[in-house]
Amino acid sequence: MTVPTSITVDTSPITAAAAGDDLDPLWRSIVTESRSRQNDIHLPISYAFAERLCSAHPEADALVVRVAILLHDTGWARVDQDRIISEGFAGDWRRADVRFEHERHGCDIAREVLPPLGYDDEFIARVTAIIDGHDTRQESYSIEDTLVRDADRLWRFTATGIALASSWFGSTPAAYCRRLRVEIVPELLTEAAMQMALAELDRAEVLLKVEQLS
Asked: Buried-most residue among 30, 45, 117, 204 (CB within 10 A)?
């Protein structure tokens, strides 16, 4: 069942505030981890979507969502980099060992970087429960888990996400856009995410001349 919202959803092109972020110290703690698998692009865009989803779902603990999405893919930095594309984006990629590995490493990184910044054990446990399984577990355990899962997918609908992901999957942008509509839209768990995804994809398809370059 898709999670509804009674709040008007912002479907304008995704942006972020120019002002400083209260999580800037956490961002600075994962600079090294951000250099793997274009996480320095994926994480900020997914984070912006997560903040927008939190606005649509004020019942969620926004800090848990924001910290979890910020850290969720940092574990890619600790797996064999050659296996990321060869295993993580080929064949039965959703069940690839490398995807389980990056989740475990992501939990380890969260446990390393969060305590020095003042986060307590209970909070860290909530964050790692989301990171552990965000790619490989089918069910969502909480509204926070749900919003992180949707934010992780939403970046793919931007022109930037399409450009990167289509190259990872060895696909054309047009073919990847079709895949987004057929495979990824049905995976979204919230009404807000579906609205954002379709609006972003409509814009991206026009920008990337998908009809002409199919």
From this structure: 204
In angstroms, the CA 64 to CA 51 distance is: 11
Which H, E and C letters describe the chain, residue by residue? CCECCCCCCCCCCCCCCCCCCCCHHHHHHCCCHHHCCCHHHHHHHHHHHHHHHHHHCCCCCHHHHHHHHHHCCHHHHHCCHHHHHHHHCCCCHHHCHHHHHHHHHHHHHHHHHCHHHCCCHHHHHHHHHHHCCCCCCCCCCCHHHHHHHHHHHHHHHCHHHHHHHHHHCCCCHHHHHHHHHHHHHHHCCEHHHHHHHHHHHHHHHHHCCCCCCC
Are 73 and 43 in contact, with CB atoms under 8 Å apart?
Answer: yes
pLDDT tens, position by position, 30-41: 999 999 989 999
Q: Which residue has the tokens 């954002």?
A: 196
pLDDT tens sequence across 3-61: 999 999 999 999 987 777 899 999 999 999 999 989 999 999 999 999 999 999 999 99
- Position 87 scores a pLDDT of 76
